[in-house]
What we know:
Elements: H1 3-19, H2 30-56, H3 79-123, E1 124-128, E2 134-136, E3 155-159, H4 179-184, H5 188-202, E4 208-220, E5 223-232, H6 239-247, E6 252-261, H7 269-298, H8 302-321, H9 328-342, H10 354-389, H11 392-397, H12 422-431, H13 442-456, H14 465-475, H15 480-486, H16 491-505, H17 510-520
Antiparallel strand pairs: 1-2, 1-3, 4-5, 4-6
Amino acid sequence: MNESVLIGRSERFLDQIKRKKISIKDAKDPEKFLEIYSYLKSNMDSLQEMRENMEMKGYTAPYRSINKYGRPLSGDMKAEDMYDISRHTQYFRMNAAAKKNILDRVKSAISSHRIAIGHLEEFATIECDSCHRKYRGHELSFLTQKVCECGKGNFKLHVNKDGVYRLDIIPFLPLSGDYMVKLSQLSPMSREAFRSMVRILKQEKRGIVKTLSLVIKILEDGRWVRKRVNIDADEEVNYDKKIRDQYGSNARIEMIQFHRKKPSIINDKQVQTALSLGYVKYAENQIHQFLPDMLQKELHDKDKVEDYQEAVEFAEEKANIYKNVDEPETLKTDFLNKQLQKKGLADADGILDETVLQDLKNKENIEKTLFQEIPRAYILWDLLHYYLTTSYDRRSKYSGPFPYLRPNLDSNQLKSFKDFKSEVIDIMQVFLDEKIEYVPRMGRVLSKKFSVEKKMKGLHMPMGVALGAAILSTEGDLPVERTAELFSITPTEVEREKKNLQTLHKPVSTKAKKFMELVKK
């Protein structure tokens, strides 16, 4: 396919996705759910095909071909030749930029679709009305034609109450790869929240050795020769023995250089951006719904604050009429003072009323706290919930709502899970009716979960939702009833798993002690 045709077709397809508005209001209806899911799956297949074609054509390094063109290294050159070379170089540079930009958009769109599909797969189980077969997770891809394997097309939808999903972020994801546009539309405070979210997801694991470069000395044809070799890192391998097995018994290692890799919590740049945008924009939308009511309660006189904001807007509009004046800011200040005096908010010297001044400071602090802390609370709670309710194997093999999520975190990455501000959680519970709880020492809670997973490895014991709730109740100092409510299970299930945890760490019965001794061996 011609490159210009591929770029044009890709842009038209992405623009088509941009024009299509996705509504998740009726997602509990099986027909509507399958319609959204099938649409995203179809888009995903087309986008992946586009990316493969682009990568085969060298779009990953588009500027490399420009090095072939340029001024000769020696010899005279005519002016017209220099002009032609400059013109051709400019053409190739513009073409390379177009390739880079379209591939970047396609990758962003793929990441966003992967996130959206993961949340939908966590949200529901589809049951066939005829044969009663249930489809969950990746199995939902069998229903893109809206027909069961039995040939029937009547379905029931069961919401997974113990799943981790937030369908409301889907409309705010850059599904068409327009993440730069969506980022520019954020308010200054939301943009700061976005940067904070990306820093959380980029938190790196301490460097782990992935490969080694070795300088070895071997005997060839009666003389010693040095060679540089690269091998994969493996803690259980004796490198001296491996080198001797490969290069002979006389081979010696003279130098070893370790190459480390630092994977992030979400180990993909495009997914980090898409998730952060989705959560921040969703949170911003939620805040705008209750902010007026909250300000009415928190401020002394909300009407005067609104009058002040109207005066600022009026002053800016009037000042913009006189753009060519020498001191536009002075003019803007004069207009503002006159308006404030007219509204009774300032005295003749332009001194703002003390009550209004205090209300403005309170309003700024409230908005800053809400717009920066609520998105953080949303994503950290969802990540905590997902880690607690899933097994290591599931996180390793299934991308879920958080693609490229690390299945395990080290102590450095756990620093991202700092405690929520309890007052922000209180606000979310009152105004948003969210099932989110203040959890002190979230990092310790997760560390405990990973420790339990290591101890249970190979025991074939279930790592269900109740176990995560039990760990949260024990390490997070939450009542059993509250954790059961948060995880949509019964208190009895949580109590049972808490007893199992005690047995796992300190077996009480004789049989349990013997079992744990056998496990340790």
